[in-house]
Write a structure and sequence with these properties.
With 323 residues, the chain is of the alpha/beta class. It is 34% helix and 29% strand. The protein is built from ten helices and 14 strands. It has a seven-stranded mixed sheet, sandwiched between helices. The protein has a four-stranded antiparallel sheet with strand order 2-3-1-4.
Length: 323
């Protein structure tokens, strides 16, 4: 598969708003190139280095770049249109901050090999919650006492790095039991449903609107020793596809999880309520802090009882129960 590299130019003050606009468009995996942080680092005496290459400061005093990658297909083009709409909306708002030019640039046709090598520069293993350990496929070793999730970041649907994904994984640790049947709405790379099975869940059903997500999720499941006897992935729109809605069923799932964006979670709330068993839980994230109350209201209107809200930086997760 080929990818289009996209860059949004902003300022240190504008990074948070730009990342929020991208998340609202459905993009959670970003890279931040901040020359101001590098400049401060290299101007501060350090015991960990005594020499650096001049090219590392070539962009001194320049734009902060928010970098992300989109698949070179119609789905990627659709996402880019959503990004442009959100960035144009930012330009029209007065935050009292210098947001920079918010110029969008594209660099076409990066293949999987280039993408994967780029990720290797900064994607290192990390712990999540009390029990999980996430590592890229090229890293060796598994720590004792933790459950290891292996991910291939060459598949750019989600890597576990984003705050919202971590929030969901932390909640799955609490809710998944050996008897749990899990439904993952908007599964992307399959991280959350795969984690649920690694945590001991009985089976998982994952769905994403992008057809490419099916192969990606199955590939990541195979990396983690999970077969199709426990894991089913399909594609479609759970709001409009009657056959898919029937396949998901009602009162069937112990845990439903959705890490998407606030607007989609609001629309999904009635569907999630029908799908989850009485006494079951709905874990949702991808919610910027300013939209939290809207999501809570939609969940309550659908019949859910809110059992917890969780914050990591500017991102929120909500857990709810079906009575």
């Amino acid at each position: 598969m080929e990818w289009n590299k996209t860059v949004i130019k902003t300022t240190p003050e504008g990074v948070e708003a730009v990342c929020g606009a991208l998340m609202e468009a459905g993009i959670s995996g970003v890279e931040i190139d901040n020359p101001f942080e590098r400049e401060e680092y290299f101007e501060t005496p350090s015991e960990t280095w005594d020499y650096f290459e001049e090219k590392l400061t070539e962009n001194k005093g320049g734009d902060v770049k928010v970098i992300f990658y989109l698949s070179a297909n119609p789905y990627g083009e659709e996402l880019l249109l959503s990004v442009k709409e959100n960035i144009n909306r930012l330009k029209g708002q007065d935050f009292g901050l210098d947001m920079g030019s918010l110029e969008i640039e594209r660099e076409n046709n990066l293949d999987d090999g280039i993408w994967l090598n780029k990720w290797k520069e900064f994607y290192k293993p990390f712990n999540v919650g009390e029990r999980l350990y996430v590592k890229p496929v090229w890293e060796d070793g598994k720590p004792e006492g933790r459950i290891t999730l292996i991910i291939n970041p060459g598949n750019v649907f989600g890597t576990g790095l984003h705050q919202t994904t971590r929030l969901c994984m932390e909640q799955l640790e609490k809710y998944v039991t050996p008897e749990s049947k899990i439904l993952d709405l908007g599964c992307g790379s399959g991280i959350l449903s795969i984690v649920s099975l690694l945590l001991g869940g009985k089976s998982a059903f994952a769905v994403d609107i992008d057809e490419n997500a099916v192969d990606v999720a199955y590939e990541n499941a195979e990396l983690n020793g999970i077969g199709k006897d426990r894991y089913y992935v399909t594609s479609g729109n759970v709001l409009t596809d009657d056959n898919l809605i029937e396949e998901i069923g009602e009162n069937r799932w112990d845990v439903v999880v959705a890490n998407i964006v606030a607007d989609v979670i609001i629309d999904l709330a009635p569907t999630a309520y029908k799908a989850v068993k009485p006494g079951g839980s709905f874990i949702s994230s991808g919610i910027i802090k300013d939209r939290l109350n809207e999501v809570i209201s939609a969940l309550e209107e659908s019949g859910f009882k809110i059992t917890g809200t969780y914050l990591k930086d500017e991102w929120c997760a909500v857990t709810a129960e079906k009575g």
